[in-house]
Amino acid sequence: MPRTRLSGLFLCLALPFFLVSLGSCTQLSAEEKKAKHYERGMAYFNDEKYQEALIEFKNIIQLDPKDAKAYHQLALIHLKLGGMTDLRAAFGELSKAVEIDPTIQDAQLKLGEFYLLSQKPKEAKKHADIVLTSSPQDPKGHLLRGRSLIVEKEFEEGIAELKKSIELDPENEQIYLDLARAYLAMKKPEEAEASLEQGLLRHSRSTMLILAKGDLLLVQGKQVEAEAQFQRALELDADNDELYAKLGQYYLATQKWKEAEEVYQKFAKQKPASETPQILLGEFYTFLGSGGKALEHYKKAVELNPTSKPARNAVINFYLDNRQWEQAETLVASALESNKNDSLAQVFQGRLLLGQGKADEAIPIFQKVIKEEPNLAMAHQYLGVGFATKKDLVQALQELNEAVKLAPKDRGIRKALALVRMAEGSYSMAIEEAQMAIRLNPRDVQAVHLLGQAYLGKKDISQAKKVYEAIIKQIPQDSVAHYQLGLIDRQDKHYEAAIAHFEEALIRNPNFAQAVGQIASIRVSRGEAKQARERVEKQIETTPDNPFLYNLLGGLWMQANQADKAEQAFKKSLELNDQLQVSYMNLAELYRRTNRTDEAVQEYERLLEKNPKAASAHMILGMIAEQRNDIAKAQTHYRKTLEIEPKFSPAANNLAWLMAEHGGNLDEALSFAESARMQQEDNPHIADTLGWIYYKKNAYLKAVSLLQEAAEKLPENPEVQYHLGMAHFKNGDRLKGKQMLEAAFQLSPKFPGSEEARATLDLL
Predict the structure, then answer these.
(1) Domain of 728: which CATH number?
(2) What DSSP element (H or E) covers 204?
(3) What does each C-alpha distance from 482 to 234, 449, 493, 513, 536 come to in angstroms?
């Protein structure tokens, strides 16, 4: 042992003094070590080196887990760092600090603020009371207590506490603002204004109080006076970014577009090296619908500060909103490479996957983000969109409603809600959401279109027509509004007016294939098939690279029984776009109709090579296999269909039938049939399948009920009559059984099951 100590001492003496660590060659006490860590930690904290400070104070906790001051300081560091994870950590550190030493008043007050932010005023008030018990004249204690009482709607007592706080600390601008808010909550605007004026007497240049006065005047409908306050605040502090944003937002809210643009341009001139005014200009042009200008400013923001997350996120958001997936993908990958735990970058990743049709991959990402940051509105919004994509409308509404609570003025959320409400058939609620989005931005054309669609869904054609006419009045080049008016006129049988609107839509957008399709459809319905084809061919001359037009032409040739010309048109469509599913489907249907089934199968299989999730291709291949009596292959394709579209009732019904007829698991067959029945309650073919499965499971009473329904709706189908006859027979009603079996043979001497039917009749 002595040799070891000597060798250690020799090593210390041999090293230069500046390399000797305090821990290895000096015998510091625990308190001395703590003091050194505290000194270094505070130095780092004051130099805004928060990560380094964090390490020093954690070292103190390691040395002394009961050091309340260290926990308090850790909380302050986490509050400076400011992320959601840090805020949670700060709450934990504050809780430990006051548990060990309740006399740390700042920790008590900050913990109370946390509870107040979490809408737990009773808990917040407890911490205020702890402070006031030991320091009855503490102004911050009275402020916290007053705020807590006001949240509890104990206004009189709360206002008394705030007034006490002002009396003790008249220099605190925030108290005047809180007092004004309390009076406003009591619907006493005059007292609210008096409170702000009291603060301004002492702090005449306080931009915070001036802005609050402007907001109060705005609430009272005094726009001119409010604008003067916002302008005054900016004059007093021309370097304050938030004041430019505030004045710009006021002009946007009051639809003063020119003035808003001038404010943002002035901001950009004032701070030419800052990315912030460029982001605001981008948001302004996005608001106006000028996408090109918006992107230009977002990109400039990134150029000015390549490390700016807000600038980067603005560009990503623009690309995602405009469905520019490739451009977004590169930036999202870069953002995640920088920080894989960046919540917003993860949401962008999920949005990108949604845009690429990968909802199953996107949903877990949003759920993970929400677990980490439950108050991130965008995560809830796009999780709702993901569920809507999966047709899970209940969960979609749950998430979107949560998003609205977190961001009630986000028109994107309102528009998503309008779409989901329409999907569930709640058109009145969809109208409300679309109108809310329009109020938030009257220039949001997408929201106005949603309003028109909701009115159409509600069958309020006159209101829908007014909406689309209003769009055209403001934006004559809006091709979709012309198209919708064409649909309305067509529904009213005003065919010439409808064609005129469709032609207007095509002038604005020559690639608008649906408009050409409507014109062609009207012509065909009038017996003008040749003119319909000629109109499509004319549009192809204008836009020769549009695959949808060739697909449309192919359909018209198929109606005319011109198989060769139809085949040529469909193949041209696929030559232009080999991902176009509808052309594969049409070409396959053409082959099926002309008894070229093998070629049809090849086309559907080619489609599945391009898109393995083409449910319709699996469905038709299943039907072809069933016709060819290849039961195993048919079942495989029906199952594939249901994997892609779990609620696709034709596939569920067909699969259930095959399983029931060919020795499959009857319980599984029953579950598929019941699923189909849930989607289409009135479909007699599904009732027949479900009834026949119950028959095979010896549940004859249930079988009779369902098969009776099917037989009444399909009186000309001998197989269905046979099924009902057998169910009656097994249920003990021999007379009805005989009647239904005889009815089946009256319809046809031979049908599936006719041999069993004949044998049963012979028994009867």
Answers:
(1) 1.25.40.10
(2) none
(3) 44, 11, 16, 14, 19
What's the total number of domains in the chain? Answer: 1
Give the burial string for 362-385 (b: 16+ CB within 10 Å, else e). bbebbeebbeebeebbbbbbbbbb
In the prediction, which pLDDT does 581 show?
A: 65
- List the one residue out of 417, 446, 449 whose CA is nearest residue 433: 417
Looking at the chain, the number of H-run helices and the number of E-run strands are: 45, 0
CA distance 763 to 729: 11
d(C-alpha 336, C-alpha 356), whole Å:
18
In-domain check, residue 722: yes
CA 40 from chain center: how many Å? 46
Owning domain of residue 725 = 698-764
**Residue 10 confidence (pLDDT):** 29
User: In whole angstroms, what separates CA 339 from the centre of its chain?
Assistant: 23
Instruction: Please classify residue 522 by burial: count the beta carbons closer than 10 Å to its beta carbon, then call 0-12 exposed, 13-18 middle and 19+ buried.
Output: buried
User: Which tokens in the block code for residue 357?
Assistant: 């049709």
HEC-encoded secondary structure of 714-735: CCCCHHHHHHHHHHHHHCCCHH
CA 420 to chain centre: 10
User: Considering the domain boundaries, does residue 111 fall inside one?
Assistant: no
- Output the CA torsion 407→412→415→420 (10° steps): -80
pLDDT at 15: 31
Spell out a b/e string for 6-26, using b for 16 or more CB atoms within 10 Å of the CB, else e.
eeeeeeeeeeeeeeeeeeeee
Task: Report, as ranges of residue numbers, the positions in the chain whose pLDDT lies below 70.
Answer: 1-27, 579, 581
Assess if residue 298 is contained within a domain: no
Q: What are phi and psi of 646, to 5 degrees?
A: -60, -20
Q: C-alpha distances in angstroms, 334 versus 266, 379, 538? A: 32, 20, 46
pLDDT, position 336: 94
Q: What is the DSSP string of 614-672?
A: -HHHHHHHHHHHHHTT-HHHHHHHHHHHHHH-TT-HHHHHHHHHHHHHTT--HHHHHHH
Q: What are the residues whose beta carbons fall under 8 Å from the beta carbon of 382, sequence distance 6 or more?
A: 347, 350, 351, 354, 362, 366
Helix (H) / strand (E) containing 47:
none
Closest CA to 226 of 208, 247, 206: 247
* Dihedral over alpha carbons 595, 598, 603, 606 (to 10 degrees): 170
CA–CA gap between residue 169 and residue 488 (Å, rounded): 67
Which helix (H) or strand (E) segment is 44 a member of? helix 30-46
Count CA atoms closer than 13 A to 339's CA, side-chain side.
Answer: 8
User: What pLDDT is stored for residue 4 in this prediction?
Assistant: 33
- 104-125 tens-digit pLDDT: 999 999 999 999 988 999 999 9
In a domain, 351, yes or no: no
| Rounded Cα gap, residues 588 and 592, in angstroms | 6
